[in-house]
Amino acid sequence: MPLTRSVSVTSLSGLDEWDEEFDLEDAVLFEIAWEVANKVGGIYTVIQTKARLTSEEWGENYFLVGPYTESNVRTQVELIEPTNGVLRRTIDKMNASGCKVYFGRWLIEGSPYVVLIDVGFTAWSLDRWKSELWESCAIGVPWFDREANDAVLFGFLTAWLLGEFAAQCDEPPCILAHFHEWLAGLGLVLCRNRRLPVATIFTTHATLLGRYLCAGNVDFYNNLSQFNVDKEAGDRQIYHRYCIERAAAHCTHVFTTVSQITAIEAEHLLKRKPDLVTPNGLNVKKFSAMHEFQNLHAQSKARIQEFVRGHFYGHLDFNLDKCLFFFIAGRYEFCNKGADIFLEALARLNYLLRVNHSEVTVVAFFIMPARTNNFNVETLKGQAVRKQLWDTAHAVKEKFGKKLYESLLVGQLPDVSKMLDKEDFTMMKRAIFSTQRHSQPPVCTHNMLEDSSDPILTCIRRIGLFNGSADRVKVIFHPEFLSSTSPLLPMDYEEFVRGCHLGVFPSYYEPWGYTPAECTVMGIPSVSTNLSGFGCFMEEHIADPSAYGIYILDRRFRSIDESCHQLTSFLFQFCQQSRRQRIIQRNRTERLSDLLDWRYLGRYYISARHMALAKAFPDTYCYEPQEPPSVSGFRYPRPASVPPSPALSRHSSPHHSEAEDEDDERYDEDLEAEKDRQNIRQPFSLPLRNKGALPQGTLTI
């Protein structure tokens, strides 16, 4: 019998509180993904951050399954003997049959168990398994697609693992397997094809075809229903991958996606409507005092300022105290990630700041890994010159301080003209001469292998942002991931984000969007879009997102030029804020972190698992969806201190005004924080009841 109603997929209040909890001792959960202890993209962050909550729920019956990569295992995994007797026999049987399967603990929060399968060790079975895949599922995989070949090997090995585990159990097992993305999806298809006693969940974090179509500059979201999906996949030579993904979506008991916008996409491209949306969360660590994260911002900002001093040596003609740091980060997908519209908006912002004679300078960082061969010599030289100046200043300061100390000891006021001798002035003059530069500060920090055709550099040449002295917007392209061991910008990503003022992510294709979510958790305002899962999520649960530092750009119903104009307006308004206004806004942004905590968003994964068990084992489990409460539990109101009129909340002048003072007087941090806390309910668990424990007359699935 079908469910009487589907669980709300967009509102956090759609899952009501339950009175009972089900004991999961008789069930085993396997979570399978290519990015278990193997960082490739955002799925790694999902699994890594969610592991602690899932481990608390399932305890010793939770196992992550992924590929064995020696370099990752050395630094992330502690190999141990399996603690579960059934799993030990399963691994021993597979190893005796020509596989290499490892067991250990992943050294992350929660310390979950991991089962790692050496895919390359069984490559000799690839042709045989491809033939079996064609005969049983009519899916053919070409020999030249290495990623798809890995997916075939990984899929057959995970299906083997689950089948062997079920065979080794003394009693009929209740196995739940959660598969992430198409790379793991083939194992799900094989489980259903072989009729294994396994409840399955398939989560797509982004559709294959959707990513390819958006990269091709098509009007994707307004033409979803008109695509010939088979032809489009074939034209892009990913038809075999698309077939695996679509088969997994149709074979699974419960199909989920990470956002409402991706659910619409999956319904049209994969031809199945998701049963549930499972938004991605983070492990939020709250500070005991509000000012702590503000102090961290100030410390990280000071380190970025040091880098900027070196990068712009000889052209440091702007006030760093009135300098704002914007950034964009992520995979180097020029159009999908919105780098194109961000650059165009920066050019327009540069014009507005110049004609309004603004004292604000914007430094925009592009953190997107690309092909390089080394650091730019001029960039390294800038940091060396900065360090030399620092050493010179310290040497002079020590000599000055010593003479001052000796003068005061004898009870005399120092003669300032004798405090510095000729040698000191010579040393300082030489240091000043070393800062002379006849070229503009570099735009890119590295030597690009494809400089002439690089999309970001090509666009910068077109719009003319060359870090000139007249430009109020400076651009720095850092084409590799940040690292605390870098000789250029020795900061890790989290520290860098904390030091910036605004994250800008005007993505056209972003199924969820961890980058703006990470900004929010760290109290940094950000720009997102109504085509990203994060943007839609925040737009639904906050009455006035911009008041909380979440600027939602319309990229679905506006043209490129109109969206660019709106983004320019957001950036210009942000530049007009006073320092106190930015501090207030950061406080509001940080309070939204509760919305993104796995303690709240984890309930959707709990619901998906319960739904899958009830569908696969209807004689044992029953899932009871409930109607949402009449009052929405997650709805942040407009902050009381924000003026009701848009004209008052967005000053047209960058100068401090009396209206601004009045706005500051209305602000009460403690009062606002208390009101926001009242809009968040405490986390709770969804129960799953044994069918035998159901009250009389309860409707089952």
UniProtKB/TrEMBL annotation:
Pfam families: Glycogen_syn. The keyword Transcription does not apply. Keywords: Allosteric enzyme, Glycogen biosynthesis, Glycosyltransferase, Phosphoprotein, Transferase. Its EC number is 2.4.1.11. Part of the GYS1-GYG1 complex, a heterooctamer composed of a tetramer of GYS1 and 2 dimers of GYG1, where each GYS1 protomer binds to one GYG1 subunit (via GYG1 C-terminus); the GYS1 tetramer may dissociate from GYG1 dimers to continue glycogen polymerization on its own. One of its GO terms (molecular function) is alpha-1,4-glucan glucosyltransferase (UDP-glucose donor) activity. GO terms for biological process: glycogen biosynthetic process. One of its GO terms (cellular component) is cytoplasm. The lineage of its organism: Eukaryota, Metazoa, Chordata, Craniata, Vertebrata. It comes from the Eukaryota. The keyword Ribosomal protein does not apply. It catalyses: [(1->4)-alpha-D-glucosyl](n) + UDP-alpha-D-glucose = [(1->4)-alpha-D-glucosyl](n+1) + UDP + H(+). Belongs to the glycosyltransferase 3 family. This is Glycogen [starch] synthase. Residues 632-701 are annotated as: Disordered. InterPro entries: Glycogen_synth (IPR008631). Residues 659-673 have a biased composition (Acidic residues).
